[in-house]
Amino acid sequence: MKLSKGKIISLSVILLLLVDQAIKFAVKLNMTLGESIPVLGDWFKICFVENNGMAFGMQFGGDFGKILLTLFRIVLIGLIIYDINKVLLKKSDTPTGVLVGVSLVLVGAIGNVIDCIFYGQLFSASSYGMLAEFLPSGGGYAPLMMGKVVDMFYFPLIESTFPDWLPIWGGKDFIFFRPVFNFADSCISVGVIYMLLFQYKYFSRQ
After folding, report:
1. Active site includes 185?
2. Would you kindly state where each structural domain of the chain is located, as residue ranges?
3. How far is CA 109 from CA 80, 85, 89, 183, in A?
4. Which of 67, 73, 101, 124 is deepest in the core (most CB within 10 A)?
């Protein structure tokens, strides 16, 4: 039986979400906060951190900002789903690449929203030296919508020191690509970059 584009997109989104959550569950339950595991020497590490805010560990306005950001993401998810179902899939000239790119952004948005909404209820708090528990008897570490996003991928590609003659930063250490991110963040970045590089003609026509 041949699957329609809509079903293929739906299955792909679900599969990628399962990958995202499987990685986060594995890190959350098997690593302590701040623990780092080298994968490719100093070039690529699994480093467990949590953040309250935006992608790549950025923060946004405390608790109120966090709730506002989560609500914005939920609205964005609804708009993307509507756009895929009611616009992109209905138009015969929509390139498959556009559907793929938009779907990747959708995966990333949903993946991190799941953390924010539910992780505070599902897990005990992670700490330095102590593993988190799944469905702890004493309840989770935060109310609904106040969970922390689990990040783990760290690529400190270049670690060096600025030359002494450089104003302001001279002599200070620097790391190229310092952010720690997760699979959902990667989906958003890949989806957006892919559409900008390869699907700009479609969007310029629209």
Report:
1. yes
2. 5-205
3. 10, 17, 20, 11
4. 101
